[in-house]
Amino acid sequence: MKTINNPFGYAVKNWWLSLLLGILYILAGLCVLWTPIVSYMTISILFSISLIIGGIFELIFAFNNKNALSGWGWNIAGGVLDLIIGIYLIANPGLSMAVLPYVLTFWLLFRGISIIGYSFDLRKYVKSNWGWYLFFGILAILCAIGIFWQPVIGAASIVYIVAFILLFVGIFRVVLAFELKSLQKKIKNHQEIITG
């Protein structure tokens, strides 16, 4: 029988952190969509808090899975980036609408690239659903390019941009969590067959 030999090597721990992170982003995105008239400062604070909490979760996930994931450094980089941007935005709540679209563009571009990286890692080991991750990664990059190309439109519609960014990242994290849980179960079953 062929053994599973991949960077996931053993059961991926704490897949539920990705699920919690995804739910956090989705709830934050829905909150922004339901209250589009709220002040710009409130959106900035909500986005900042989401990034800080998300960054902490991502760092915990990365350190708990450093022996299981080959690209765990991307999780650390993403967590640190979320923390830096979140703290920067909280420290500057009056950040002008002309600057925030560029901060969001940089963050979304990094997230899009990391999602594409996850999709190729999953393609090697899971074989199914990896195309959706690739699609969301490309979509994130295209959104980032669109915001960068037309920052005035981005500044004018910042409420909806923030909401959809949070929703896209949240959906990705939730789907990734269930993919990791499924992979964890497959690895455990495979290990039981080998040892049993």
Summarize the structure.
The protein is mainly alpha-helical.
Structure commentary:
The protein is mainly α. It is built from 7 helices and no strands. It has helices at 15-34, 40-64, 72-91, 100-125, 130-149, 151-156, 158-195. The two termini are 13 Å apart. Mean pLDDT is 78; it is low at 1-11.
Q: Give the overall shape.
A: elongated
- Poorly predicted runs are 1-11
Radius of gyration: 18 Å
Task: Provide the β-strand percentage band.
Answer: under 5%
Q: What's the number of helices?
A: 7
What's the pLDDT, averaged over the residues? 78
Terminal Cα span: 13 Å
User: What is the number of strand segments?
Assistant: 0
The biggest sheet, with number of strands, parallel, antiparallel or mixed sense and barrel status, is: none
Which structural category fits the helices and strands? mainly alpha
Summarize the amount of helix as a percent range: over 70%
How is the topology of this model organized?
Elements lengths: L14 H20 L5 H25 L7 H20 L8 H26 L4 H20 L1 H6 L1 H38 L1
Please name the defining characteristics of this protein.
7 helices; elongated; 196 residues; single chain
